Amino acid sequence: MSLKNSLSSPVGKKLITGITGLGLVVFVLLHMIGNLSMFSGDDAYNEYAQLLASFGPLLYLMEAGLVVFFLFHIVNGIQIWVGSKKARRMGYDTYRSAGKPSQQTTSSRSMIVTGLVLGVFLVIHLASFKFGPGGPGNADPSYVTSVAGEEMRDLAKLVHHKFASPIYAFGYTFVMLLLVLHLRHGVWSAFQSLGAMRPSLTPIVYGLGALLGLAIGLGFIALPLAIYFNVI
Ligand code: HEM
Fold it and tell me: Does residue 199 surpass a pLDDT of 90?
């Protein structure tokens, strides 16, 4: 089988979804840790965002890689779901509980739903922050600040402004809980697709995936709620 055929087979699609998924886990983990810098103050957060922006072409390269990862993850994820629907309609995979050794839980069945909500979230998220006031193509002098004599985008002001609204604060909280569910099953599933798991490792990898998902989700949730309830 050619590489192209292997990658478009059901197993190949699971492999691509798993590899891109693990790459995206690294991104969301780093993004969450970066966001926590706002607990050290608005200047620290703006300086952190400015540091990333100063990477210039390297940042564009990383962003291009991120777009490719997101696209492959979403397209292959949808194709896997469509494939499993078709198999079920043919009656040879009638739905029933997968029993003990499988990890077919609520989160595995809801992967397509949580995934699609996260996809819609991402579009709104980028429009609100990345391309929001003061961002690329959206110059706004009221979102410019000066830290230690250096002029930079006042991203902290935008984050404060957005999460003062209950729709953003609780909307983000809700979506981050869906992210926990998505990661809980996703990490386990990715390791299984990569064949990196012996059955004896299943409970450990599943437990670690759940813990990682929870840590990332709670880390993200801290910021909107802290701002909404005036803690920072
Ligand atoms: C409380 C949760 C979150 C907050 C407060 C937040 C905040 C932000 C902010 C302020 C930016 C703009 C950064 C800049 O322009 O320098 C950004 C960019 C971005 N966020 Fe989030 N984010 C959150 C959750 C997420 C999640 C869950 C994902 C992925 C599913 C995500 C994906 C992205 C992406 C892809 C970018 C663009 C990165 C780039 O182009 O450099 N964010 N986020």
Answer: no
